[in-house]
User: Which sequence fits this backbone?
């Protein structure tokens, strides 16, 4: 479904609510004649994180920079908070918009604290107030002001510089954040953590964020909606990650999203208890004769062992072990004597991607799923397969996404 003009119905979309950012038939032709963006119409809702993705040169940065007027549109209008940015003083406009670029874009000859306090200083705050704000923000992004505050950017790791960049963008508490490949320069492990932390921060602080990335996985992981662009800033599709991956709107999106979109979809597919397998349940105190019959009747080669009404997971018991116990005449034996622990379990709140990679990494055939301590069922490769073919997390109000 192409979210034409960005006005399609969705749960966060209240028709009466002004979008945080609106592009209205926006175009940009650079002086050399390059038409970077032709006619873009798109909304970014309040509190939403929208990722702009697309091949290099398709106009992502141009679109981003038209919001804070680092680039002036040559046609159409960009509205921030309902106001036509062309009629707002550029300096004032930028104070309400945090801007984060690769490697933080920090001033090399200023201390970390001074870098963070750049905008408060422009706003005329006195020194103690600036320092308080800077230290508060450093803590917010996970840096120790006492340790890192006095350092210079070059004395920090790439990930730490990026954190400072985010802190600086948040300094004047702007409602809108623009991020241009913010995590592009950090290594993958650090990037994962920064992505998760940034997402949490953005949601907690209720910021609207427009985010450029060339990394589709990053977009899938972080964004509420993804805007896929082709050359000339042409909006191919603007939809939730799940919808984009399950219902690519155009051939371009199909190609861009790639053949492994099934795997990507796992990252946005929840673990649903009703999809899980339910092997026979035994109690630690059950006798081996009973247990062996129960498994035989069910036609299963193993059973799951749970304790108490809370269904606390103890482990699993193979039918072979029970049969062997019977053969040896161990009729007084109990299930607990033959129970083996599961090497690992996943929480229901995890995504299918985590579950599936655990299954693969540990070379398991089944993986118990828990909610807190309570056992819910067992996840297998078949469950993953079914989930992939089924309905992903629909983020559209209409239930959005059809099963494939
Ligand atoms: P992306 O961020 O998707 O890589 P850009 O917005 O940077 O794309 O660029 C879009 C197009 O505009 C490209 O063809 C690029 O070469 C061109 N472009 C970007 N900035 C300028 C500029 N200042 N002058 C002329 N052309 C530019």
Assistant:
């Amino acid at each position: 479904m192409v979210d034409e003009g960005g006005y399609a119905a969705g749960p966060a979309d209240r028709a009466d609510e002004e979008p945080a950012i609106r592009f209205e038939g926006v175009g940009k032709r650079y002086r050399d004649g390059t038409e970077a963006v032709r006619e873009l119409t798109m909304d970014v809702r309040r509190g939403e994180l929208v990722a702009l993705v697309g091949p290099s040169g398709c106009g992502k940065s141009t679109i981003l920079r038209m919001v804070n007027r680092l680039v002036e549109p040559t046609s159409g209008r960009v509205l921030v908070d309902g106001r036509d940015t062309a009629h707002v003083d550029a300096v004032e406009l930028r104070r309400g918009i945090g801007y984060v670029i690769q490697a933080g874009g920090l001033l090399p000859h200023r201390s970390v604290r001074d870098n963070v306090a750049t905008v408060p200083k422009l706003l005329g705050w006195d020194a103690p107030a600036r320092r308080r704000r800077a230290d508060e923000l450093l803590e917010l992004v996970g840096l120790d002001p006492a340790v890192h505050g006095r350092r210079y950017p070059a004395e920090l790791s790439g990930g730490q510089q990026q954190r400072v960049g985010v802190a600086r963008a948040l300094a004047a508490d702007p409602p809108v954040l623009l991020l241009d490949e913010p995590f592009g320069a950090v290594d993958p492990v650090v990037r994962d953590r920064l992505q998760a932390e940034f997402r949490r921060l953005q949601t907690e602080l209720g910021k609207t964020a427009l985010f450029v990335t060339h990394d589709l996985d990053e977009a899938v992981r972080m964004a509420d909606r993804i805007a896929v662009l082709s050359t000339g800033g042409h909006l191919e599709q603007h939809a939730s990650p799940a919808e984009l991956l399950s219902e690519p709107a155009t051939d371009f999106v199909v190609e861009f999203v790639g053949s492994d979109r099934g795997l990507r979809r796992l990252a946005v597919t929840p673990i649903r208890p009703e999809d899980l397998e339910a092997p026979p349940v035994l109690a630690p105190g059950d006798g081996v004769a009973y247990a062996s019959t129960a498994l035989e009747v069910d036609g299963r080669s193993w059973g799951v062992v749970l304790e108490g009404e809370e269904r606390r997971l103890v482990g699993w018991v193979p039918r072979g072990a029970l049969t062997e116990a019977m053969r040896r005449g161990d009729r007084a034996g109990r299930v607990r004597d033959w129970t083996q622990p599961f090497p690992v379990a996943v929480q229901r709140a995890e995504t299918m991607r985590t579950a599936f990679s655990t299954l693969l990494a540990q070379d398991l055939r089944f993986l118990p799923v828990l909610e807190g301590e309570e056992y819910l069922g067992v996840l297998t490769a078949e469950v993953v397969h079914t989930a992939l073919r089924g309905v992903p997390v629909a983020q559209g109000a209409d239930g959005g996404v059809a099963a494939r």
